Amino acid sequence: MDFFTKITSTATTDKLNAVIQGRLTWESIPKKFRPLANRINIVVSSTLDSQAALNQSEYPVRFYCTHILKDYECDVFFPNIDWKNFKEIT
């Protein structure tokens, strides 16, 4: 959680990071910690056309994607990403 908090809360004084999460993840956060402080909290559902929403937004400048190198049993997955629309920075 320390890495997640650091990477998602670090911002300049005039900008905030966004945390995009599914509804069930949002509901799993204890109410006293919602919304996550110092971040824009975005909750999505399975009925949202996320690609259309991203195409209309002027804000996604950086996209941090953490690859978890372990398989977990789950029923919700992040959509495939067209990586040619992004530039990798390290």
TrEMBL record:
Domain DHFR positions: 1-90
PROSITE patterns (UniProt xref): DHFR_2
Catalytic activity annotation: (6S)-5,6,7,8-tetrahydrofolate + NADP(+) = 7,8-dihydrofolate + NADPH + H(+)
Alphabetic keyword roster: NADP, One-carbon metabolism, Oxidoreductase
Enzyme Commission number, as recorded: 1.5.1.3
Keyword check for Acetylation: no
GO biological process: dihydrofolate metabolic process; folic acid metabolic process; one-carbon metabolic process; tetrahydrofolate biosynthetic process
Record's keyword annotation contains NADP: yes
Listed GO MF terms: dihydrofolate reductase activity; NADP binding
Pathway of action: Cofactor biosynthesis; tetrahydrofolate biosynthesis; 5,6,7,8-tetrahydrofolate from 7,8-dihydrofolate: step 1/1
GO-annotated cellular components: mitochondrion
Protein name, UniProt field: dihydrofolate reductase
